[in-house]
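Figure S7 source data.
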Amino acid sequence: MERTPVMTSINANWEEFYSKEISEKLPFFAKEDRLYDCLFAQQFDREILTGLFKTADALRTLTQHKEGMDFISNLLSDKRAMLYFVQPSTRTFLSFLNACHIMGIKTSEIRDTSTSSEVKGESAEDTVRTFSSYVDMIIMRHPTPGFVEKTAWLMNRTNRPVPIINGGSGKDQHPTQALLDTYTLYRSFNGEMDNKTIVMVGDLKRGRTVRSLTYLMKNYKNIKLAFVSPGQFRMEPDILEFLKRHNMPYVETEDFSSVMKEADAIYMTRIQDEHDKAGESGKVDYSPFYFRREHLKLIKKTCVIMHPLPRRHEIEVSVDEDPRAVFWRQERNGMWARAALISHIFGVDSKIKH
Ligand code: CP
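Tokens for the predicted phosphoric acid mono(formamide)ester complex:
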């Protein structure tokens, strides 16, 4: 049966649409008060986030027993999903794959364009449209900035739209990473998300996770942010503008130890040298932006140490033993947060929560 296109009223061409403010575009990626496509961190408000976290918690509890697992894996057993990940990924790919399996969704995957008909000259646009002939959802990671959004825009203009989930695009956004990061904060702080100081460390210029996480922090009251980075890799002006617009206080510094003591969460990131154009990463001394074992005695007893992973040397391995190091839990939280998101998009979340 043919489905009604979501965006029947959009006649703008792609360039015109792409240039619009994200706030203007959000209604076109939503359906009946729910996210339809998940493309930007700005799509999540506090109410949606709390609902997703409750669903994720309920999924964890229910799936501890076979009866609950069988119930969950029947909820979307009529659905199929495509995982189109043509940029390297371990945890985003695997957590989405396993989230689909938990929900009973059957999956297909392409992880390298050399194995698709793109090598025969098929455009990326035609390739993703082909996926929608076979599946009910496309989860994708693509190197081209804006391509995930373009896919959603294209699909929503066809008579067979399918939800598109952004698993990380270019260096601009990684909304589901921000979702799982915020879920990790929510669990670490027992749901008390207001009045926190979050310190983000590393290559903030090219790290899409810190950009998306900053957007999500707007949903909470009295959040203070500290950005610690080498001068070359400071947070981009558009994010700083966003913070000013929403009266969210922030500091920028190269002195990591000066902001450690106040932190409720320290979010470490690696240098993003895959985006290098002129080998600029090699010229930077990144060692002042490492979290070392000796730092454990400087931070609060309740401070959590996070990292989207993969890591290189940003966190000394012996730090992993400290109970405040939550990055392995954070990684696992990703699977539950993503399963919750999928259940929200397909409208079965209320069956899980109740
Ligand atoms: N955090 C994250 O996106 O990890 P992967 O690149 O392994 O998916």
